[in-house]
């Protein structure tokens, strides 16, 4: 739900997801990071994402997940990121 029932305001991702889980030891929030590719497990159906490549200040890193990866990159960037990762429009992927 995007409405906070206690004060009838629209909830943002920070209030809805980040603040309630901020103290968890396995959560690390990076600002200014740019995801460049989602890595999928080989030969699984359906696809299972296992890690994400990203850049911060020009340095490339990989974040791995043991349970799940939540992709939140907005309407256009999520599509772009999935196509960079090999998921999406076949004609774009072939080029």
Please specify the SSE layout and strand pairing.
Blueprint: E1 3-4, E2 9-10, H1 13-21, E3 33-40, E4 49-56, E5 59-64, H2 74-84, H3 90-94
Antiparallel strand pairs: 1-2, 3-4, 4-5
3D architecture notes:
The protein is globular, with a radius of gyration of 16 Å. It has helices at 13-21, 74-84, 90-94; strands at 3-4, 9-10, 33-40, 49-56, 59-64. The strands form 2 sheets. It has a 3-stranded antiparallel beta sheet with strand order 3-4-5. It has a two-stranded antiparallel sheet with strand order 1-2. With 95 residues, it is α+β, with helices and mostly antiparallel strands. 26% of the residues lie in helices and 27% in strands.
Key phrases:
three-stranded antiparallel beta sheet, globular, flavin adenine dinucleotide binding, oxidoreductase activity, acting on CH-OH group of donors, 3 helices, 95 residues, alpha+beta, Glucose-methanol-choline oxidoreductase N-terminal domain-containing protein, 5 strands, FAD/NAD-bd_sf, FAD, 27% strand
Strand content: 25-35%
Low-confidence stretches: none
Main β-sheet description: 3 strands, antiparallel
- The rounded Rg comes to 16 Å
Overall mean pLDDT score? 84
The count of β-strands is 5
Number of separate helices = 3
Class computed from helices, strands and strand pairing: alpha+beta
Helix content: 25-40%
This entry's quaternary arrangement is single chain
What sort of overall outline do the alpha carbons produce when their principal axes are compared? globular
Distance between the termini: 39 Å
Can you write the helix and strand succession as a string? EEHEEEHH
Q: Taking strands numbered 1, 2, ... along the chain, how are they ordered across the largest sheet?
A: 3-4-5
Domain Glucose-methanol-choline oxidoreductase N-terminal: 6-91
Family: Belongs to the GMC oxidoreductase family.
Protein name: Glucose-methanol-choline oxidoreductase N-terminal domain-containing protein
Cofactor: FAD
């Amino acid at each position: 739900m995007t409405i906070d029932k206690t004060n009838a305001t629209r909830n943002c991702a920070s209030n809805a997801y980040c603040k309630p889980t901020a103290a968890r030891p396995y959560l690390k929030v990076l600002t200014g990071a740019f995801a460049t590719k989602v890595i999928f497990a080989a030969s699984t159906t359906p696809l299972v994402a296992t890690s994400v490549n990203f850049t911060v200040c020009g340095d490339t890193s990989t974040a791995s997940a043991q349970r799940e990866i939540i992709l939140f990159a907005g309407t256009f960037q999520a599509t772009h990121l999935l196509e960079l990762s090999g998921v999406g429009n076949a004609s774009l992927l072939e080029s």
